[in-house]
Amino acid sequence: MINNNQRVPQGGNEIFLNHAAISPIAPAVAQEAQTSLAALSRGIPDIQEWVNTLKECREETGRLINAPPESIAFTQNTSHAISLIAEGLCLDSGDEIIVSPVEYPANYYPWKNLERRGIVLRHLPEKDPSPSFEAILEAITDKTRLIALSHVQYFAGHRCAVEKLRSVCSTHTIYLCADLIQSVGVLPVDVNSLGVDFAAFGSQKWLLAPPGIGTLYIKPALLTHITPVITGAFSVQTPLETLQKDLSFAETARRFESGTMNFTLFSAYRRALRIAQEKGIAHIYASAMERRAFLYHTLKRKGYTLLSPENPAQGSPIVTFSHGTKTKSLYNFLRKKGVVATFRHNTIRFAPHYYTPWQKLKSLAKLV
């Protein structure tokens, strides 16, 4: 039985507020990786054990986002997952994709790269921190084939009402692709309620898992709409049948997995996913947002310029703020005091999680 202290990152004396970047992992998660490496040091592990690990990760991921395991493929990261969609879609020169210019590169460059094939990117207004429903409607034309958005925007944590686009996309036969990396693990996420056709996220942020694993979700009815562009031994129906030479793709999203995975990472990932399920996403979300509220109102009271939305329903645990020309010096001061955060575009981004100790937040409040 794993005790509670083993289930959350322990950290040291620092005040860690960087979960929107790369998160620490819990001792129990690290132990899984160490156990897997120890098994490797003794020789080649049981292949079936590896297969079972992937199967269980798929099942746990499916429960987390309310998707069947068959709709989930594992990749190296979010960029990899989105690139598989971008390159595998059947698109013609002149077809249009709606993107936001304030997207994180993982959900921008894979689409930008399609311009070499004559695909046209239609950019939403850059002034909008999160794309509005009206702006997206205005951007749709009879050439629109896909809309690519983040569920939660990385810079200041604005939440996009992705679910509002479901009927519009269905009416106009437009695919909807969402980057979920800033929401899975801390916000309740249901891919069916969101109405997305494709989704992607990585392991290294709110899931408190090691970096190096990406997840690709494809709506089951659309599996054959995407052509696998990277293939290998694991892409086929019988991956361990080495003498077959017919390329018969797996009937599940596994068709997008090419070969041997890093099973040490997946052993740790499985534990991280199970801890999230045991804690309960509703509890994780409520606790993280309580900490967000504390930080937001502390900064507001002290006169800082808040870039994150005040209404928690429009935001996430991310709190981004500025101190004018003094922002960089404030960031450097906080770093020296052990505060781990992100400095970007003359702003400071705090991203607490559900387990962030209150005492550390109160200590931070005295520093800002």
TrEMBL record:
Record-linked Pfam families: Aminotran_5 (PF00266)
Aminotransferase class V domain residues: 15-340
Record-linked PROSITE patterns: AA_TRANSFER_CLASS_5
Keyword tags: Aminotransferase, Pyridoxal phosphate, Transferase
Keyword flag Transferase: yes
GO MF, one annotated term: transaminase activity
KW Transferase (keyword) present: yes
Cofactor(s) named in the record: pyridoxal 5'-phosphate
Xref: InterPro entries: Aminotrans_V_dom, Aminotrans_V_PyrdxlP_BS, PyrdxlP-dep_Trfase, PyrdxlP-dep_Trfase_major, PyrdxlP-dep_Trfase_small
Similarity comment: Belongs to the class-V pyridoxal-phosphate-dependent aminotransferase family.
PANTHER family membership: BLR3095 PROTEIN (PTHR43586:SF15), CYSTEINE DESULFURASE (PTHR43586)
Protein name, per record: Class V aminotransferase
Lineage: Bacteria, Pseudomonadati, Fibrobacterota, Chitinivibrionia, Chitinivibrionales
